[in-house]
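Field reference: sequence -> structure
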Amino acid sequence: MELDREEVAVLWGKVEGEVLQQADVGYEAARVLWNASIDKHPALIIRPKTAGMAEISFFFANMAQEMGLDGVVEAVKFARAHPSFPFSVRGGGHNAAGYAICDGIVLDLSLMRQVRVDPASKVVRVQGGCILRDIDQETAKHDLVVPMGVNSTTGIGGLCLGGGFGWLSRKYGLTIDHLIGAQVVLADGSLVTCSEDERPDLYWAVRGGGGNFGVITEFVFLASDMSPFITGGFIVQSMEHVQAVHRAFCTLMNADERELTAYLIHRLAPPLPFVPQNAVGKPVVMLAWVYAGVDIKHCNALLQPIRTAAPVLAEILQPHMKFVDWQCMLDEAEAFGARNYIRGQLYNTLAPEVADAIQASIGQIPSTKSEILIGQIGGAVSDLANEATAFPHRNAQLIGVVQARWTDAKDDENMAAWVRVATARLAPYTTGAAYSNFMGDVSQAKQTAATQAFGVNYQALRALKRKYDPENLFRHNLNITPAE
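Structure field:
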């Protein structure tokens, strides 16, 4: 299908930024996502460009023209006027399932990447196209932080709307727990704000309900005080000792130290400078950890059971590292350009059988960049009830991710099959729920996936979907269908 050229020309006149069709310069670059296995050819890509942050309070919405938001409004109205075309919204383009791009109309926010920090109030205003690096660099100037993800190239939009796990979740909670307001373009094209005092039901829904309720053009966060420095590190041990390492990891979990977050990464040892050459390519379990406290001796004591559980092949400890730099540590390993297939799971406990299941799957691992991760959550995440925000998995203590990563399209099916088999092996020991941001292609079972992701809040979210998007314009996502 093609759009009418005259209609597109009229849209061009209303949008400050770019309106790209397939023959236009910049089109090919604009359709590239983090997951290279997603290959869509939009009929139209609309890229509004901001003219500068408004100097007035977030709680007033009459800054639309100054901030370029009129382009977002016009894009939504255009998509609504062409219902036969799919419509998607792109923030950072990092979602594994590729929801940011469709073969229809794409609203791309990537030119809207301004951040404003008020150090006195600790309020941080973030435009919808920002990536995490944009925010970290500005908050770090004032010894502040908004807890976010695990690498700096992730988009704030997808991360936050799904909940927002990361290195600081145990100490400060999810990203959505710091969201005090948002500016939203609804399905009818209206520009509104939401907070505890204004449209509180919408405010509840966007904190974990995904991109189902509108386009978030501005997030407003309340940052936390934080030293610019953290201590982080990696401990590498052979996969043959994975059961012992898992038992030690359970000991670490039982300590319930909120300033320490640790992830177990099961994979083939990567060629990192601190990894011995004779270990590279061998199955290993790596403990990646961040300590956001000041008592390094206490941190070392917490990690000691891991070190003594099995011979250490390699270890690196980086004290007094800037957190903004740590957030970039995994950027190269998770860079744009590779093909990816991901499935995520949640756990209440780390059953002994999990180690056996992982060991069997790593023995069949199909690429050197694939991995199975088990990461700590809990802590401050669990301080709120499951119904306090739309995110419904507050009680989970661990998050698991099975990720295949490769480059050749001919390997697509083998890689996806490995992820499915590994996920099935682990399923009996999980909660049965899933974190929406770590769900790959669910096109064959969207209803099941939605109930897994939104849990006890699903029906309430369906009712709000009917209120704010009854025609389901925002459906190119992990979709919440409007209540009948």
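Note: Residues 412-426 form the longest helix (15 residues).
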